[in-house]
Amino acid sequence: MRLSIICTFFLMPLFVFAQQVGNTQITGVIKGAVSKNITLITGEQHKSSGQQSFDARLNSNDEFTFIVPLTEPQFAVLQYGRNIFANIYIEPGDQLRIDIDGNDFVKGMTFSGTGGANNRVLKFYWEQHPEVQSQFQMKQYKKGGMYYTVAPDIDKKMTTLGYTSFEQDMRQVRDGKLATISSYERSYPEISPTFVRFMRSEVEYEWAYNMLLYGYAFGYKNGVPDSYFDFANNVLINDDGLVSSPKYRRYIKGWMNYKYDKGTKAATNQYIGQYELAKQLLSGKTQSWFQSDVLTRGLHKSDLGIMIDPYNEYVSGTLYYEYAEPVLTKFYEKNLYAVGSPAPNFSLTDINGNLVSLSDFAGKVVYLDFWATWCPPCLKKLGMMQHVSTQISRSDVVFIHISLDRTEEEWRNTLSSRVTSGIHLYAQGGYKADVVQRFSVKAIPEYYIISKNGTFVQKPSTVNAYSIQECLEKLP
């Protein structure tokens, strides 16, 4: 395993330079600006494990400039202040100018330059066909191994209409949106063919996704016949030019999850099963992106040993390295904390002001917990581990609890009012603290079990007092 890891990460620089990129320039001015900072968030999340954002500061004339390398046409977001977001469309090589009214940031935008016409039309389109932007308003359905999200208005139709009425309604919505795009194409011949194709694909794959979810989630209830899914025969699932489209990717993920769930399920692990299924159904860039995505999800949810073979096959065989970064990053993160890997050392101050290091407990089993007083599940788990610490039969187990509280005072006040055992440490800086970064804690409560020789051990598959105590008791 170690050799394959070393080879993989030597390949990473090749992934970076294999792309042909186009520098896209976005300039503008904010009249009546109340903040000097503006952020551009690009839409290349499918090619990166983190959000791609660029910050700019307004000059003395309230002007800003972004110069970003793009490889694909995409939607992007301008963020101004904490809660103001505006959607734009950009292509590699665009020279887009945006003039903005600071008092009405979204509606007060005007566009010019290369890409200006595309964004003027996009603004008209979204005013005519608004979409739900907040994920908190979306409805969710768990089917197979995936959560499907849908806008509230579509969800209402799914729960109230029979399948023939739903088919007809979705067709009318789709055709109406496509007609709008066709009218823009006639009225604004300066918009780019790539933009027109991108917009049409967003409409087509939104329709296909809603059709799929209805049949998948409500098919049994509403007597949907097998022939209902014939709509998918006319939906293209291998288009190299559409991988940058969010709705294309959403449909592909939903369709592959559906096909695996309704198929023979030859693989016991659903992520590996879908990875293998992609060899049959997908090709080109779509296959490479999807396999990277499903392996990334599999590495997050599954044991590293199960995922290692398809991972090695993918990184050594893909022809489209631009999509490999998310799975490379997840593998590195997973391997860093894999069973048998050494736990990183740290030093923090305890409740009494004493400096405590993980290395102080060499030769002991360590239960290491990350928590905060503002996290109700964390407090519940803290109480659960208090019970475990009093019930465990061996004396060489150390319980260490690291707080990510906003202030040390909140941490101390909470501990003073609770019955707690173990060693309590405070991580200044919360999620930005060095110890949090070292252990790659993304959410709390989070915990690790460390063996006597300082390496990570396999955590129980279920998180309850019994399973954790049993794990601690059985360790050598």
Helix-strand blueprint:
Elements: H1 2-10, H2 12-17, E1 22-31, E2 37-41, E3 53-57, E4 63-70, E5 74-80, E6 84-90, E7 95-101, E8 109-113, H3 116-128, E9 139-143, E10 146-150, H4 152-160, H5 163-187, H6 193-218, H7 246-261, H8 270-281, H9 284-301, H10 304-317, H11 325-336, E11 347-349, E12 355-357, E13 365-371, H12 376-391, E14 397-403, H13 408-416, E15 423-426, H14 434-438, E16 446-450, H15 465-474
Parallel strand pairs: 1-7, 13-14, 14-15
Antiparallel strand pairs: 1-4, 2-3, 2-5, 5-6, 7-8, 9-10, 11-12, 13-16
Describe this protein's structure.
By secondary structure, this protein is an alpha+beta fold. Among the domains are: 18-114, Immunoglobulin-like, CATH 2.60.40; 347-474, Glutaredoxin (3-Layer(aba) Sandwich), CATH 3.40.30.10. It contains 15 helices and 16 strands. The strands form five sheets. Strands 4-1-7-8 form a four-stranded mixed beta sheet. Strands 3-2-5-6 form a four-stranded antiparallel beta sheet. Strand 13, helix 12 (376-391) and strand 14 (397-403) form a beta-alpha-beta unit. Helix 7 (246-261) packs across helix 8 (270-281) and helix 12 crosses helix 15 (465-474). The chain is globular, with a radius of gyration of 26 Å. It starts with a helix and ends with a helix. The relative contact order is 0.08.
Concise synopsis of the structure shown:
The protein has 15 helices and 16 strands. With 476 residues, it is α+β, with helices and mostly antiparallel strands.
Helix content: 40-55%
Describe the global form: globular
User: Strands of the biggest beta sheet: in what spatial order?
Assistant: 4-1-7-8
Task: State the fourth-level CATH superfamily of one domain.
Answer: Glutaredoxin
Largest sheet: 4 strands, mixed
Discrete helix count: 15
- Gyration radius, to the nearest Å? 26 Å
Extended strand count: 16
Spatial separation of the terminal alpha carbons? 25 Å
Q: CATH first level of one domain: which class? A: Alpha Beta
Mean pLDDT metric: 89
Beta strand %: 15-25%
Q: Judging by the overall fold, what is the CATH architecture of one domain?
A: 3-Layer(aba) Sandwich
Which spans have pLDDT < 50 for at least 5 consecutive residues?
1-21
| CATH fold-level assignment of one domain | Glutaredoxin
Structural class: alpha+beta
